[in-house]
Each structure stands twice: as C-alpha cells, then as structure tokens.
C-alpha cells in the first residue's frame, strides 16, 4: 500500500514536473500544449531518468536551441549529462521537435543525426498553408539537409521521434555512406538502415553517386548578360555548384532580400522521389538558422538560375571551361 502510494505520489510529482516543463516550453513554443503534456507525461512514466535528463538538457540548450552542434559541444553535452550518443540523440529529438512548423497537421516530429565529424544536426517537419502538400518537409529530410548544408562528410546515426516513413528511408538511402548509417526509430535500439529498407533501390543500382555534402561541381557563369543584381546572381551561381543532379539538368534557386541571401539547390534522388527542390533546401536552411519566415517588404528579389535545357529558368547558365 505504502509502495503504491509512494509510486502514485512519484507519478503525480512527475506529472507536475512535466506540466511545469511544458508550461516553460509553451512559453517559447505556444502550440499544442495538451499534446506535449501527454507526451512528456508518457515519457516520464516510461523513464523518470529520461524526463529529468530532458528537463536538464532543455535548460542547458536554452530558449532557442541550435539545429547544429559542433563536435566539441557534443562532447561537452555527453560528459555533462553522462550520456551515450544514442541517448543524447533521443533527447535532442524531443527538444527540437518543439520547433516543428505544423499549421496543418499539428503533429510535431523531430530528428537528430550524428555526423562522422562528431557534430550533431537537428531537423523538424515543416508545412505551409495554401501550398501543395508535396512541398512539405519531413523531419529527417530537414535534419539531413541541414547536415548537407554544413558539408558533413557522412551521417553515422540518425534518431527520429517517430519511425521514419518510406519517403525518409529512401531519402537516407540516397546518401553517400548510407550503408553504415544506423537509425533509431522512435524508441528502438540503433539498427542499420538496410534493416529498415531491405531489397532497396538506390544510386548504386544506376551506378550513380549518392548525395555527397563534400562534393562541389565546376564553376558556372550566366549565358549573356541577365538583368539581375550581381551579388544575387553570384550567390545563385555558387549555390548551383553544389547541386546534386545525377540525372543532369537541375535548376538552382536563390531568393534574396537586400539584407541576405537564402540559397538552395536541388538534391535529386536516383529513385526520382523524394527529390528535394531548391526552394525546400533554402527554407530548411532559413528555419535551421532561426531566420524569420517573412522576407523584408523592401525590394525583395529572387533569382533562379538553371541550365537552358531545364524546363524552367530565369537565367541560363553554363560551365566555365577549364583551361
Ligand atoms: Zn518521413
């Protein structure tokens, strides 16, 4: 009886702590409080240790947790909280999912990945109203595109708050080095991607290279003299150099305000879909940098450069001949 009472009291305390944490989280992320309370309480009931670690890590990471943690900061977190990599990734997923952009589904997903450099990258699902659903970004894609942006050579381990959908399993399978990628699917132990996607189809089937964040193509230049601001055009050309277009003629996008450039380029998949568009890459970068969504109303400008063979382009480009 006493034990039951103690357990009950402990649970109540955990629920209070979870609610308290959620109130704190809701102050910064004022969405779906009930859903998050439910999840935090469920997590607390499953593992009081985890909930205390989650609270400590949330406090450590601050109001605006980064989507990128360099190797030295990862080591600091592991030592400070006595965590192994899988546990750290699981907890970071719970922290970062609060930053999902979900005006349609209201269903938050988080992902975190460890790169071969020792850095950790985070990602969330992203939706937009009044835009085709095909433009939505899955948390794993966001996380991996974030790592690609930072030129992370290889991804060794990825954790997600939900089991990765087929779309995301294929996207992971398009990465260089994915044969060594371990996936933590919700609460599971790390398992090889191959176990989640047996009898796969990927770049190797077509003797193509996978998405390699360290790769950069030859220099590009515009054809003719397009009427585009020079700095914007140059930024778009540099973005296009990193395009992963194994099928050939992909465009590169660059959207700009007078204050900054938001760059993107396509990440094509050997399996066609889920190819990531330049706009999606640019939006992921913007969100992972905690940039505001609305561009400056003053003189907004955009530029899309692509090869003349592409179905649409604003500025035609060509390779700079090497001497
Ligand atoms: Zn997915």
UniProtKB/TrEMBL annotation:
Residues passing through the membrane, by range: none
Database matches in InterPro entries: CMP_dCMP_dom, Cyd/dCyd_deaminase_Zn-bd, Cyt/Deoxycyt_deaminase, Cytidine_deaminase-like
Pfam families: dCMP_cyt_deam_1 (PF00383), dCMP_cyt_deam_2 (PF08211)
Superkingdom field: Eukaryota
UniProt cross-references to Gene3D superfamilies, sorted A to Z: Cytidine Deaminase, domain 2 (3.40.140.10)
PROSITE patterns xref list: CYT_DCMP_DEAMINASES_2
Domain CMP/dCMP-type deaminase: start-end pairs: 84-204, 227-323
Subunit structure: Homodimer.
Family: Belongs to the cytidine and deoxycytidylate deaminase family.
PANTHER family attached to this UniProt entry: CYTIDINE DEAMINASE
Protein name: Cytidine deaminase
Organism for this UniProt entry: Paratrimastix pyriformis
Species lineage: Eukaryota, Metamonada, Preaxostyla, Paratrimastigidae, Paratrimastix
